[in-house]
Write the structure tokens for this entry.
Amino acid sequence: MSDNEGRKNLRMPDDDEVFAVVTNMLGANRVKVRCMDGVERTARIPGKMQKRIWIREDDVVLVEPWDWQDEKADITWRYEKQEADQLRDEGHIQE
């Protein structure tokens, strides 16, 4: 049995994406996120995710900050709880 027994290969951020933790639900498909680059942003839940993926406070997500407005972002991915725990264990996410 290796240490990697329970490890899944998780989706890692692309060049323009950052890890973020949902801190607040704002309504109207928007959430407040605390990004790992130290910026607090308002993130939009895109239409294709709204009905299929349920996003709650303290979820770990990937966001893509907007080029023209750095305080806003789009959510591109949500991690399951055990995936988020794995990311924390590996040091990708600091609380």
Summary: Strands lie at 18-27, 30-35, 40-44, 60-65, 72-78. The first helix runs from residue 47 to 50. The radius of gyration is 13 Å.
